[in-house]
Amino acid sequence: MQSVIETNAYLAAAKDVGMSAEEQQMVVDLIAANPEAGEIMPGCGGARKLRVARPGGGKSGGYRVITYYAGIDVPPFLLTVFGKNEKANFTKGERMRWPPK
To answer: Domain locations in the chain?
Structure first.
């Protein structure tokens, strides 16, 4: 298992979408065990989108966690999170801004 970096942007977004401490820890544990989890998002510099179920809501009504993992020598980063009810994917304009500089 690897250490996982929770960025300030991720922590703020997790608070905004109402993720509980237990849900946040579940995401950290999942990424620590499998840093390559999720789908690579085309045009986003290697960022991945991971679908995470909300308790009682399933994956389709859950969260979308955006991560970045460069390889074994670098810990995975949790970049942001949003609710599926907010949006399913980034717009073209949002994709062009990834990865953040």
So the answer is: 5-96
In this prediction the pTM is 0.82
Name the CA radius of gyration of the chain, rounded: 13
pLDDT at position 88 is: 54
Name the token pair of 43: 């045009």
Architecture of domain 5-96: 2-Layer Sandwich (3.30)
Q: How many Cα atoms are found within 13 Å in the side-chain-facing hemisphere of 35? A: 20
